């Protein structure tokens, strides 16, 4: 049997990944399938149905190059150039954070506060790839969303995602949080800001080593940007408007205190699927 059949590649490369990245074998095998799908431009179903198919020399070389990058820890999302989030596929690049499943909770909580045909105005601060804003816009086509980011490169990715998904009710602006906004009011502000402490050892492991540092770390206590958003949000919220924020595993209590100190009521925190308080918010009263 040739050594470059799909079956053999899945077997050997999954074992390499599992050992190098300390993954379980099932997860490693799934990642190798993703790489093969990308190189062969085919579906997972086709791979499973053709285990004896042999890669061409060019395909093998392309796959090996991606495998080497993955073995060195580069995120699978950057290798593939995309990541699924809230049922949609988003282009990603090293200019943006990789959308994560736990952030879907922020979208869900935001959508709960918007009726299906509501024409409210939403502000997404630190939009990155545009995942939060575009997922909301896809599910609430009557809303108007302004998505801001300080990074021009990230905004380029977000605009590309809006175009690819055919979403036209999200508008993009370069802004350092509220810095470039004029006097306008929103019914809802959402944000997944940086919330990791500077120098946190977790920044040296896993995918985050390859993600933009400015989108991850936020001062000595990890709360610099959360604090800034909560303190400055009030002038941009209409009466009864909501502010929803994703935060770190140990920051819910402090986030609630900041919301209370800055004129918000109906303050809450909600746990993600791992049981971690992941999103906090409040209503302007």
Q: Could you explain the architecture of this structure?
A:
The protein is of the alpha/beta class and 285 residues long. It folds into two domains: 6-73, Helicase, Ruva Protein, domain 3; 94-284, Vaccinia Virus protein VP39 (Rossmann fold), CATH 3.40.50. It is built from ten helices and nine strands. Strands 5-4-3-6-7-9-8 form a seven-stranded mixed beta sheet, with helices on both faces. α1 packs across α2 (25-40). The longest helix has 16 residues, at 6-21.
Q: Beta-strand level of the residues, as a percent range?
A: 15-25%
Helix-and-strand structural type:
alpha/beta
Q: Number of helical runs?
A: 10
Low-confidence parts lasting 5 or more residues at pLDDT below 50? none
CATH C-level label of the largest domain: Alpha Beta
- Biggest β-sheet strands, sense, barrel: 7 strands, mixed
- Radius of gyration (CA) equals 21 Å
- Kindly report the average pLDDT value: 95
Number of domains: 2
Helix content: 25-40%
Assembly state of the chains shown: single chain
What CATH architecture of the largest domain do you see?
3-Layer(aba) Sandwich
SSE string, helices as H and strands as E: HHHHHEEHEHEHEEHEHEE
Total strands: 9
Instruction: Give me the side-by-side strand order of the main sheet.
Output: 5-4-3-6-7-9-8
CATH topology of the largest domain: Rossmann fold
Fourth-tier CATH superfamily name of the largest domain: Vaccinia Virus protein VP39
* Shape category: elongated
Kindly report how far apart the N and C termini lie.
71 Å
